[in-house]
Amino acid sequence: MMGPLSYYQLYELNHAAMSPMRAAADMFGLLLKNPLNPMSQTPLGRNWQAGLELFERTTRRYAKPSFDLPTTLVGGMRVPVTEHVVWHKPFCDLIHFERQLERPRRDPKLLIVAPMSGHYATLLRGTVEAMMPRHDVYITDWIDARMVPLADGSFDLDDYIDYLVEMLHFLGDDVHVVAVCQPAVPVLAAVALMEAAGDRFAPRSMTLMGGPIDTRINPTAVNEMAQGKSLDWFAENVVMKVPFPHAGCMRDVYPGFLQLSGFMSMNLDRHVTAHQDLFKHLVAGDGDSATKHRDFYDEYLAVMDLTAEFYLQTVETVFITHALPKGTMTHRGVPVDLTAVRNVALLTVEGENDDISGVGQTEAAQHLCINIPDNMRAHYMQPKVGHYGVFNGSRFRAEIAPRISDFVLTHDRDRAANGASAKAPAAKAPAAKAAAAKAEPEAKSAVTPAARKSAAAKPAVARPAKAKPAAPAKATSAKPAEPADDLKRIAGIGAKLEASLNAAGFTRFAQIARLTVKQQTALDARLGLRGRVAREKWIEQAKALMQEASAQASATPEPAPASAD
C-alpha cells in the first residue's frame, strides 16, 4: 500500500492520465509517416517519428496477443488450422488447434500446460507451432484474474490441479502432457495423485521443461528473493484488489505489472538497450529489425493478474517450504506421493543458462519419481540457452522439439503395444487358436495309430466358446438386486450429485462408508468434488445412516415365512 491508494490504483490512474498524450503521440506519428508530408523522409522527421513511437509503446497497456497460427506442415503438405475452445472453466479455456486434414491421422494428443505466472499462453506460440506437424495439440489458455468476477469464486493451487485432472479426463486415456516452467509442479502432483488412485486417464508421458521442482538446487535470484521473505510479507506488499472498472473489481490479485517489473529489473540493462536499438532502427529505416522488436515486446509486455490465493499457495509450497521434494505436499488433505508414479514416462528439459529455474531444479523430478522404469525416463540439458530458449527460438526448434516429439511418439507406441497385450479376454481366443494350430503337428505325431482311430470314432466334444448351457441357469439362480439407498440423505448430496454417484457405481451407504483415501481421490477427480467427501464428512454420515437402518431392522418383527400361508 502507499497512502490511501494501492499501487494498482496508482497504476490505473497513471495509465488513464497518460491516455491523451499517448493518443496525441500516435496521431502525430501517423502524420509524420505520411509520404505526402515533406518532413517524413528528413532526418528530423525520422527522429520525431521514432521518439513518438517509442513514447507510445512504453506507455501503452498491451492487450492479450493472438496465437495467429493459421496453417501447419503435416506430411509435407501445408494444411489449415482452426482454434476451438473445447473445454471451459471460469479461470481457463482449453484450446484445440484442429488441423484440417484430408485423411485423418492417429497422431498422439499433446496437452501443453502453459505457465500461469503473469504472461498469457500465447508466449508458447513457438512451442505449439513446433509440435503441430506430428501431434494433435491442445493448450491451457489461463484467463486474466482481473477479468473474472468475484461471483465465480476463488482459484488456488488445489483448483489448478483439479483443472488438470478434469482436462485429462475430458481428453481421454491417450494423452501426453508438456508442462512449461511453473506448471511442472502441479502437473507432477496431478499425475502422482492419478497414479495413486489407479486413474486410467493418467497421461502416457509427461515432459517437464524449466520447472521449479526443487528450488533448493542452484537457487536463482527469483528463488532467493522468495526464500528470503515470509508469506505475510508477500500478502501485505504484493497482493492488491482489482480496481474499478474491471470485471474482477475487488478481487485480491497479484498484479501482472508487478511481476513484469520484477522480471525486467533482473535484466534492466538489456531491455533499455533493446529500446535504444529500436530508436536507431526506426531512424535508419531498418524495418525488419524494428518488426522483430515489436513482435517480441508485444508478447513480453502483455501480462495478466493472478489470484492472490493461487499466488500465495504457490510461493509457500514451491519456494518457501519446498513441499513437493520434501514429500509433504498435499492436495485437499491427500498426500502427493511421487513414488506412486510408475506408468507415466518422464522427460525433463533444462537450459544451461536458465536464470529463472536453475540447472538441476527440473531434473530433480527424475530422482523423486523413483519407481519409473529406466526405459521410460530421459533428461536433456540444452547448451547456451536461457529460460525462454527452453521452449522457444531456433535452438528449441532444432534441438529440443524433435526430442520431445520422439519421446512422445516412442511412449505412445509402447503404451499402445502394452495395452493390446493387456486385453486378455479379447486376445485369448485368437491366441489360443494360434497356439493350438502351432501345436497340432506335434500332437498328431505323438498320437499312436490306434488312439487316432479310436478318437476318430468318437463325436467331437462340445466347445464352451460356442455353447453356453450354464448361462440360463445362472440367470435364474441370481439374487435380485438390492434397492439403492437414498444417497440424498447424506448432507451435501443432492439429486444431481446422487445421479452422478450412481452412474459411477455408488448406490449404497456401505460403499460410501468404505471409501479409502485413494478411492476418495479418484472419485474427487472424476466428479470434480473438490474435497467434499472429507469436508462434508460423507463417510461418517454414511456409517451413521447404516447404523440407523440396522437399528430399525432389528426393532421391526420379521414377517412370517411364505410357507406359513
TrEMBL record:
Residues 210-410 form the PHB de-polymerase C-terminal domain. Residues 440-482 are annotated as: Disordered. One of its GO terms (molecular function) is poly(3-hydroxybutyrate) depolymerase activity. SUPFAM superfamilies: alpha/beta-Hydrolases. It is an enzyme of class 3 (hydrolase). This is Poly(3-hydroxybutyrate) depolymerase. It holds the Pfam family PHB_depo_C. Keywords: Hydrolase. Transmembrane segments: none annotated. Signal peptide: none annotated. NCBIfam families: PHB_depoly_PhaZ. PANTHER family: BLR0908 PROTEIN (PTHR36837:SF4), POLY(3-HYDROXYALKANOATE) POLYMERASE SUBUNIT PHAC (PTHR36837). Residues 440-481 have a biased composition (Low complexity). Its EC number is 3.1.1.75.
